[in-house]
Amino acid sequence: MNRLLIGILSVCLAVTIAVPATAAQFGLGLHYLRTIDEIQSGPNETFSQNDFAIFGSLSFPFAIIRVEGDLEWVPDYLGEHLIQPSAYAFLDLGLIYGGLGIGIGYLTGDNSGWANNPWYGLRAGVQLGLGGLAVDGFLSYRWQSASFSDAVGNQSLDAFTIAAQIKFGG
Fold first, then answer.
1. CA 19 from chain center: how many Å?
2. How far is 87 from 57, CA to CA, in rounded Å?
3. How far apart are CA 104 and CA 96, in angstroms?
4. Cα separation of 49 and 47, whole Å?
């Protein structure tokens, strides 16, 4: 897992160096996450399956390919703050796009720690350009079987998500 994450970060760094800053798009948005299975911590304790997040993005185009890095903050995930960096590669067909991604979560607070496994995502969306701005709405599905320190034992954290963001630049 560490080699895969190092590889992804290396590619993101290379993209950042290779692409002119004028081609980059910066985004800010809201994300709704719905965990498919109930998340349980103890025999009688169940956490909410519904979470909202604030996220920022940085994307770079390469012809019909777009690479994007996201940083997401969920203020109340399993009773803690969750920070999730992720990277995506999209086939960008103008108005619509789709692609694959990988990310990992970090819980802050008393149960702080990285998830023991990354999540993998499939994402499709619509991005409507409005001059120097763009409105981006997307749906995604994330696969993850992981645990976070003592907060949650190893279980399915698969989630369906829907999000919207405003992008600047590009």
1. 22
2. 9
3. 26
4. 6
Residue 21 phi, psi dihedral angles, 5° rounding: -60, -25
Torsion angle of alpha carbons 24, 25, 26, 32, nearest 10°?
A: -140
Using only C-alpha atoms, the chain has a radius of gyration, in whole angstroms, of 16
Enter the pTM of the model. Answer: 0.78
pLDDT tens profile 130-151: 888 999 999 999 987 766 655 5
Give the tens place of pLDDT for each residue, 106-127: 888 776 788 788 889 999 999 9
* Cβ neighbours of residue 73 closer than 8 Å, sequence gap 6 or more: 53, 54, 55, 81, 82, 83, 84
Asked whether the predicted pLDDT for residue 87 surpasses 60, the reply is: yes
